[in-house]
Amino acid sequence: MAKLIVFAILAVVILASAVFCVSTKRIMRAATALLFVLFGVAGLYFLLDYTFLGAAQISIYAGGITVMYVFAIQLVSKRTLQGLSERWLGKRTLLAGLISLVGVGTVLGVFLKNKIFSELVSTNAPSSEVSMEVIGKNLMSADKYGYVLPFEFISIFLLACIIGGLVILNKQKKEEVEE
């Protein structure tokens, strides 16, 4: 029963922080909310007794958030950080809300079709657990179901995003100097 209460608290923190993260326009508040989401997910890992994944979640992702703070301060103009250039875009917000509702409906439909909710409510534990050795081999293998190649693609994608951000920043600074 205690695990269920802790799970409910973590779920509320994660959901509230995630909604706040995507709804605010201030980058520092969004990054802070994302930090709470990542700590909540780490709490879920610890709740499931996956201490390695919880520690990795905190060290890798929470550390990444601090790096994001540094990039946010360096790449974003001072007016945007102070919230002076914000404006309300009603039509885009409505469209984003409708798209989000369609996404939530799709996920719930898949859950109901696959009877996931009934499996979550049942108290029967899974018959077999996946060992850390199997998880480690799958994460580090380049076989058919290995994850090394997707991790490499993600790292290249993130590097391209950082370079693109620096190029955009350079163009904006040149435009500000010319004005």
From TrEMBL:
It catalyses: a quinone + NADH + 5 H(+)(in) = a quinol + NAD(+) + 4 H(+)(out). It comes from the Bacteria. It is found in: Cell membrane. Its EC number is 7.1.1.-. Keywords: Cell membrane, Membrane, NAD, Quinone, Transmembrane, Transmembrane helix. InterPro entries: NADH_UbQ/plastoQ_OxRdtase_su6 (IPR001457), Nuo/plastoQ_OxRdtase_6_NuoJ (IPR042106). Pfam families: Oxidored_q3 (PF00499). It is a multi-pass membrane protein. This is NADH-quinone oxidoreductase subunit J. It comes from Prevotella aurantiaca.
